Amino acid sequence: MTGNSTLRLLNATMRAVLWSGIPFNVTVQDVPIPTLQDPTDARVRITAAAICGTDLHMYHGSYGSSTPPWVLGHEGVGIIESVGSGVQSLKVGDHVVVPDVFDIGQVNMNLAEPWANFGPSLGLGLDYGDFNGCQSEYVVVPFADYSLWKIPGNGSVNATTEIDYLFTSDIFATGWTALDYAGFQTGDTVAVFGAGPVGLLSAHSARIRGASRVYVVDSVPQRLALAESIGAIPISFNETVGPVEQILRLEPGGVTRSVDCVGYEAVNRNLEPQTNQVILDMVAVTAVRGGIGAIGVYTNPGSTAGTPLGNTTSSSIEFPIVDFFEKGLTFGAGPVDVKLNAPYLMHLIETGVAQPGFIVSRIIGIEDAPEYYARFNYHLETKVIIRFP
C-alpha cells in the first residue's frame, strides 16, 4: 500500500451523509475512514459528489439494503490518496471518476445471473456490497484498475468541467443508455418521461445523437425550462390536456422512441402515485414498430429496517399488452453498467460536444446535505453537488 497519508489516517474519522432508516431524514456524522482491504483496492479522497434521484428512493424509505445505517452517495470524483500493491494503471495523485457500480474483477460466465457482470455498488448498503458511499470525504474502490477512470488534464481541469466528468459516474451514462434500450437511431423523434437529472441528460443525449425532435414530459416548470434551454420541447402534464394528447397533436403518428426516466415513483396527472403511469403513456405515444426504454428504477424490497416503506410498491404492474403487441413495439429495460459508455462520454465532454453540468442548481458543503436532500425532494433543486475542501 502506498500513499503519503496512510499512517495519519489510521483510526481517523471523516464526515459522511448517513441513511439510518428514518424516512425523509439523513444526517451528517463522523464515521471511520475506510481502509484498503485488498491489493487491488484504491482509496480516493472525494472532491465532489452528487445527490441522485436514487438517493431519494432511499430517503423515501423504499429502496436500498435491509440493514442500516450506511453512507449514501454513488456519484463521485476525487484524487487517489493510496493504492494497493496490485494496482497497476493508477497512482497516487490521479484525478478519477468513481462510478456507481464497480468491476467484478473477473469474467462471470454464469449467464443466468441477472447481475452477472455488475460488481458491488456503493451507497446502497450492505446488500449491494460492503462499500461506503461517496457522500463522504473518502471512499475505497475495489479492482481499481477496472473500476476507476482518469479525468483528462492531470488535475488541471476547472471546477465546472470536473462536474461534467462527474456525471459519467451515473446519470449521463444512464440517460444515454435509456436511448439504447429504446433502439434509438439518428433522426428519430423521442419522448422523455421525467425531467429530473437523468431525464434531462437523456434529452441532452438525444440532441447530441441527432434526434429530429425531443419532447420532455414533467410537471415542474423549472425542469421544463431547462429542457427547453437545450432545444427540447417541454410538455407539462399539469395542463388540461394530457401529455400523450399534447405530443400526438404534434406527432400524429407517435414518436419513434420513448424513455422512462422516472420508475416506480411515477405519478398521474393529479400528482397521485401510479406506478404504471409512464408505462401506459409510453405505449400510447410510441409509433408502430417503435421502441421504448426504461432506466427508472422498479423495485419491491419489502419492509425492512433499511427500507421501512418498501412494501408500498408492488412487484407487478398492469401492462397494456394488447396495444404493445398490436403496435409491434420493443421494450428494453434494466440497470446500467456506466463503465461501458464511459470512454465515449468522456471524449464528448473533453471535446466540448457534451456539457451535462447545465443541470446543476446548487453546490453545497457536506454539512448542508440534510437541508438540500429536502429541497431536492420537493423539486426546489434540479441537481445538488457536495463540494469537499
SS-based structural class? alpha/beta
Largest sheet: 7 strands, mixed
Number of strands: 16
Average pLDDT rating = 93
Strand content: 15-25%
- Rough outline: globular
Give the terminus-to-terminus CA distance. 24 Å
Oligomer: single chain
Portion in helices: 10-25%
Count every helix, treating DSSP H or I runs of 4 or more residues as helices.
Answer: 12
Return residue spans where pLDDT drops below 50 for at least 5 consecutive residues.
Answer: 1-8
Rg, nearest Å:
21 Å
Question: Can you write the helix and strand succession as a string?
Answer: HEEEHEEEEHEHHEHEHEHEHEHEHEHE
Describe this structure in words.
The protein has 389 residues and is α/β, with parallel strands linked by helices. The strands form three sheets. Strands 3, 5, 6, 7, 8, 15 and 16 form a seven-stranded mixed beta sheet that branches. A six-stranded parallel beta sheet has the order 11-10-9-12-13-14, with helices on both faces. The chain has helices at 6-9, 53-59, 144-147, 159-166, 171-182, 197-208, 221-229, 243-250, 277-285, 321-326, 342-350, 369-377; strands spanning 13-19, 26-32, 42-51, 70-71, 76-83, 95-98, 138-141, 149-150, 189-193, 213-218, 233-236, 255-260, 286-294, 330-333, 362-364, 384-387. The protein has twelve helices and 16 strands. The longest helix has 12 residues, at 171-182.
